[in-house]
Design goal:
The structure holds two protein chains of two kinds.
Chain A (H helix, E strand, L loop, with lengths): L5 H28 L8 H8 L12 H32 L1 H14 L8 H8 L3 H25 L3 H9 L4 H35 L9 H11 L2 H29 L7
Chain B lengths: L2 E14 L2 E14 L3 E5 L6 H8 L7 E6 L10 E4 L11 H12 L5 H14 L15 H13 L5 E5 L7 H18 L3 E4 L3 H7 L2 E5 L6 E6 L11 H17 L1
Parallel strand pairs in B: 3-7, 3-8, 5-6, 6-7
Antiparallel strand pairs in B: 1-2, 1-4, 8-9
Classes of the chains: A mainly alpha, B alpha/beta.
C-alpha cells in the first residue's frame, strides 16, 4: 500500500499538527470562557459524536441524520451529473450551441443555490424534491463547466485519428471525446460533490424538513445546543474530506496517463 | 503497373479573413502498389496539407484523387501516422492497435481482432508491451505502435507525416529499416512526408519534390539503389547532395 509509506505518514502528521493545535486552543478558550453558548467544551461535542446511534435532541440519531443527508446529497449530485455531463458534451462539441447557451449559463451560475428556495417550494412543494432541487442547482454548474472545458481540451489530433478511421460523430464522442475529457469531468464531479455537500445545510433549512445534518444544526441552534452543532459540523467536514480523498484516489487510478502523454 | 493512388491537379488555397493563401497549385502524381514514395520540399510548402487531403482530413479546392483499392464499404482505405504518435493515452498498446480495426470493420469477431493484433505486435516487436500504456513506452516504441494501429486496417496505402522526425538518430534508423521490412512482408504501399533527404533516399523508390508555395511537383526522382541501402555509399551521398540542392533551389 502506497498510502502508508513513511513519507505519507510524515505528510499526514504535518496536517494533523494544526488540527491538534486548534483543538487544544478551542478547549483552552472554552475553559476560560466557561460559556456553553459561545464555546462548548470538546468533551461535550465528542460525547454527542460517541453516541451516534442515540436519539439527538429527542429526534433522529446522528447516524440516521447523516444517512438522510447523504441520500439527499447523492441523489441531487447524481441528478445534476446526469443532466450536466450530456449537456456539457453537447456545448463543448459545438461552438454554435455554446454561443446560444453561454450567456444564460453565466447568469445563472453565480446565483447562490439557496436563493432558489422560494421558487423551489412553489414548484416542488415542501420536502425531498425541493431539497434535491437546491442541491442539484449547486452541483450542476461545476460539472457543466468542467465538462465543457474537458471536451474543448481534447487534443484535435486524437479526433483526427478517429476521422482517418472514418469514425462517425457518435463514435468520435464515445471513443475519443468522452475518454479524453473524462479526467477534467472527474475533477468537476469532485468539486461538485463538495458544493453539493455544502448545500445540504442550506437546503435542509427548508420549512417542513425533519431530518438531516443541516436540519439538526438548525434545530440545535434554536435550542441553543452548540455542542450538537459542533458535532454536526465535524461529521459534515469529515465526510467531505472522505469523499474528496475517494475522488483523488479514483483520479490517480483511472487517469494515471494524464500529463504524461 | 496500376497505381494504388492517383493525384490529378490537386489545388488548395487557405482562406483566412478574406486573405487567400495558395498552398497547392495543381499537384499530380501516381503511387504504384508496394511502392515507397517520399514527398519532400521546402518547409511550409504544403507537404502535410497534401497528405491531409489524401487522408480525408482536409478537402481540396480542385483536382481528383482516385484510389483503386477500397475497403468493403467503398471508403478509400488509407491510414495515417502522424509525427506525434497520437496514441490514445487511456488505452493500452493492444487497444490502441485494434482501435481503427474496430471502427472500420464492424462486427469483426474478437478472435480475428486478437489474431491480427498479435501478428502486428509481433511485427513491431511490441508483444511484451501489449498491456502497457503509451506513457510507459519509449518514443520509438510509441511510433511503432502508431504504425501498427494504422496497419491494422490493412490499408491500401499508409500515409506518414514526418513520422520519425521527433526520434533520436538510432531509433529513427531502426524504424526506417522497419518500413522497408514491412513493405517486404505485408506488401504495404507507403506515402511519406519527410524533410530529411538521407531518410528519403534510404527507404524510397521515388522522391517527389515539391516547389515552394504555392507548390507544384518540380521533380520526381527515382532512387535505383538496391536494398538494403548504405548511407555511406558514394552513390548514396551523391544523390543526397543532389536532392539537397534541388530542395534548396525551390525555397
Amino acid at each position: 500500500m502506497v498510502l502508508i509509506s513513511k513519507q505519507n505518514i510524515r505528510d499526514y502528521g504535518k496536517g494533523l499538527a494544526l488540527i491538534v493545535i486548534l483543538l487544544i486552543s478551542w478547549e483552552g478558550f472554552a475553559l476560560m470562557i466557561q460559556n456553553n453558548y459561545i464555546l462548548p467544551r470538546l468533551g461535550e461535542i465528542f460525547s454527542v459524536l460517541l453516541q451516534p446511534a442515540a436519539p439527538v435532541l429527542g429526534g433522529e440519531s446522528l447516524i440516521q441524520n447523516t444517512i438522510q443527508s447523504l441520500r439527499e446529497v447523492l441523489t441531487g449530485f447524481l441528478c445534476a451529473a446526469a443532466v450536466a455531463i450530456p449537456l456539457g458534451l453537447f456545448i463543448g462539441w459545438s461552438k454554435e450551441v455554446q454561443k446560444y447557451l453561454n450567456p444564460t449559463i453565466q447568469i445563472l451560475r453565480p446565483v447562490p443555490p439557496i436563493a432558489w428556495m422560494p421558487f423551489s417550494i412553489a414548484w416542488f412543494g415542501i420536502g425531498f424534491n425541493s431539497i434535491l432541487f437546491i442541491i442539484g442547482m449547486g452541483a450542476f454548474f461545476p460539472i457543466l463547466i468542467n465538462t465543457v472545458d474537458g471536451v474543448q481540451g481534447v487534443r484535435l489530433r486524437w479526433i483526427e485519428v478517429a476521422e482517418t478511421f472514418h469514425a462517425t460523430t457518435f463514435e468520435q464522442l464515445r471513443t475519443v471525446i468522452l475518454p479524453g475529457a473524462l479526467p477534467v469531468i472527474w475533477n468537476g464531479l469532485r468539486v461538485s460533490f463538495g458544493v453539493a455537500w455544502m448545500c445540504v445545510v442550506a437546503a435542509e433549512m427548508l420549512p417542513g424538513t425533519t431530518a438531516g445534518l443541516g436540519y439538526l444544526i438548525m434545530y440545535a441552534y434554536k435550542l441553543g445546543q452548540l455542542q450538537v452543532i459542533g458535532a454536526g459540523m465535524i461529521i459534515i467536514g469529515v465526510i467531505g474530506l472522505g469523499a474528496d480523498t475517494l475522488f483523488r484516489a479514483g483520479q490517480e487510478r483511472l487517469f494515471g496517463w494524464q500529463g504524461r502523454e | 503497373m496500376e497505381p494504388v493512388l492517383s493525384l490529378d491537379g490537386i489545388v488548395k488555397t487557405f482562406r483566412d479573413n478574406e486573405k487567400s493563401c495558395p498552398a497547392l497549385a495543381g499537384i499530380s502524381f501516381d503511387v504504384a502498389a508496394r511502392e515507397i514514395v517520399c514527398i519532400m520540399g521546402p518547409s511550409g510548402c504544403g507537404k502535410s496539407t497534401l497528405l491531409r487531403i489524401i487522408g480525408g482530413l482536409d478537402s481540396a479546392d480542385a483536382g481528383r484523387i482516385s484510389q483503386t483499392a477500397g475497403n468493403k464499404d467503398g471508403k478509400p482505405s488509407v491510414a495515417m501516422v502522424f509525427q506525434d504518435h497520437a496514441l490514445f493515452p487511456w488505452l493500452t498498446v493492444y487497444e490502441n492497435i485494434v482501435y481503427g480495426l474496430r471502427l472500420s470493420v464492424q462486427n469483426l469477431p474478437e478472435e480475428e481482432i486478437a489474431k491480427r493484433a498479435e501478428s502486428l505486435l509481433d511485427l513491431t516487436h511490441l508483444t511484451a508491451f501489449a498491456l502497457s500504456y503509451p506513457h510507459q513506452l519509449s518514443g520509438g516504441m510509441k511510433q511503432r505502435a502508431s504504425v501498427a494501429r494504422a496497419l491494422a486496417i490493412k490499408p491500401s496505402i499508409l500515409l506518414m507525416d514526418e513520422p520519425f522526425s521527433a526520434l533520436d538518430t538510432f531509433t529513427r534508423r531502426e524504424l526506417e529499416d522497419e518500413v522497408v521490412r514491412i513493405r517486404q512482408d505485408l506488401k504495404t504501399t507507403f506515402l511519406m512526408v519527410t524533410h530529411n533527404p538521407e531518410e528519403a533516399i534510404y527507404i524510397a523508390d521515388r522522391i517527389v519534390i515539391l516547389s515552394g508555395r504555392p507548390a507544384v511537383v518540380s521533380d520526381i526522382l527515382p532512387i535505383d539503389l538496391p536494398y538494403p541501402r548504405d548511407k555511406a555509399d558514394p552513390e548514396f551521398i551523391r544523390i543526397r547532395e543532389q536532392v539537397t540542392r534541388m530542395i534548396r533551389g525551390k525555397a
